[in-house]
Amino acid sequence: MREFLVELTTTVPEGTDPAEVDRIRGAESVRAGELASGGHLVRLWRPVGELRSIGLWRADDEAELREKVLGTLPLWPWMTAAITPLQPHPNDPGSAGTAA
Question: Contact at 8 Å (CB) between 81 and 8?
């Protein structure tokens, strides 16, 4: 699987019932757990003071990531995504075979 850095910004449509927002956010939490268990969601961060998420995600390619992974998130219809495909860096301290 390839890795992707994904920035997600959620904008709830004005006038949406707060109870519906809470229900969808609950479902989002459940689905994120499922995607983590399946190896697609690796890490997730929220910048301090911001209402967006930055995550490390895995999928076979960007089409799978958009359609079969991110597209299954309950909040996806309200999200915008900036997706950056990643590749290993030769100086990555977390990778085996790193040059000294």
Answer: yes
- pTM of the complete model: 0.89
Question: If we measure between CA atoms, which residue out of 69, 89, 92 comes closest to residue 8?
Answer: 69
Per-residue pLDDT, 98: 43
End-to-end CA distance of the chain: 27
pLDDT for 40 equals: 98
Query: Cα angle vertex 44, ends 38, 50, to 5°?
Result: 150
Fold classification of 1-13+44-87 is Alpha-Beta Plaits (3.30.70)
Number of H helices, E strands in the chain: 2, 4
Per-domain residue ranges for the chain?
Answer: 1-13+44-87
Report CA dihedral (6, 53, 28, 23) to the nearest 10 degrees.
-150
Helix residue ranges per DSSP H, the chain: 18-37, 62-64
Q: Taking 80 as the threshold, does the pLDDT of residue 60 lie above it?
A: yes
